[in-house]
Specification:
18 helices; two-stranded antiparallel ribbon; 64% helix; mainly alpha; 2 strands; globular
Amino acid sequence: MKRKKLISLSTTHIILLSFLITILVGTLLLMLPISSASRQATPFIDALFTATTATCVTGLVVVPTVSAWSIFGQLVILALIQIGGLGIITVMSGIMLSINRKMKLSDSILIQDAFNLNTLSGLGSFLKKVLIGTAVVEGVGALLYMIVFIPKYGLRGIYYSIFTSISAFCNAGIDIIAEDSLCSFVTNPIVNITTCLLIIFGGIGYIVWWDVIRVIKQRKTQKGRVFKRLTLHSKIAISSTAILIITGAILFFIFEYNNPSTIKELSLLEKIQASFFQSITTRTAGFATIPQENLSTPSALLSLILMFIGGSPVGTAGGVKTVTITTLLLAAISAIKNKNHVSVFGRRIPKEAISKSIAVVATSFSIMFISTLLLSCFTEANVLDIIYETVSATATVGLTRALTPTLTIAGKIIITATMYLGRVGPISLAVAFLTKKDNQNIISDPTEEISVG
């Protein structure tokens, strides 16, 4: 009876606790001397920060991953990244399925909430496809990286390739190649294209994956363009992602074209490549091919917007999500046009989706604002660097203007809490909207007009 009560207590609490327990276990493992490259125990706050940034797939680090951690420590970080990207509920459920254990209703509800799905139908099959699809994409990514890393680093390049592929797909942005991320590969097309594709595949969302595959399979029996036969969710996710990537790349290209600290000395094609990479990595990936502190002010401000938006729902990316922002923009346009409904691609968007979008954006903005306010009290840095740090932490991006390594203990605590809240906050809201509503009061509160704007 107690076990049933615990499970029925709240799936929100279970998901929140799963992330917290994973972080604490990771912290204890990283504190062990065997996890440190120096074979000395790592301070609790640094281990906690690293475990949090890995589990929340953020990528901000207070100590260099390449030099501060041993192979064992790096493998712990890699495991946390994979668990954090998929979600501990997903990983544990996958283990149960692999040993042929049937999923209970409570397990199905947890998976439904963890992925922000609207139905319990076919969850076991969905979970298997997620795990297999993840393994395939990460495996292909690792093979592509090996083309560059093995000739450059020898057999160690295999390890680098696997680590980087998982980190890129999970939108973590943590790498073990160099302390300056991927800046040494700014002109390498294989590394750039592979990383960008992994980020996009991980951030576009699993729902879009299967929807595209479904439509492609049906093209022999159903006529019409692939895009037209996609669900409304997939149409919004794909179109908004494409618009943000292309627009971001064009603006970065313009803003940084003559910046000698970033891309001025690169060839035209290399400038385009670097611009697209910056546009894509700000979508919560965290890798960098150009130092973020060298960006011009317009580029930094553009990065803040892209980081806050992030990727798409039901994927490995963070941020408030593309579909969320698109829904709010469409709602605003409808309000301006004095329409009583919101529609796009010939379909209406439910009012519940609009309410949820408002809640997600308001919550994320509140976390970011409070974090910025607190960090400014304990950090002597310019406002832009502080905001860049807090937006990056809230949206679990991992890009920094060289501020993270200089954080004080108070600053580390603030950013640690921000990363955790930024990761679990939107999930908690999603679960709250999916849970069964209590019976509405028969007598509702009276309505009274107010002035807005």
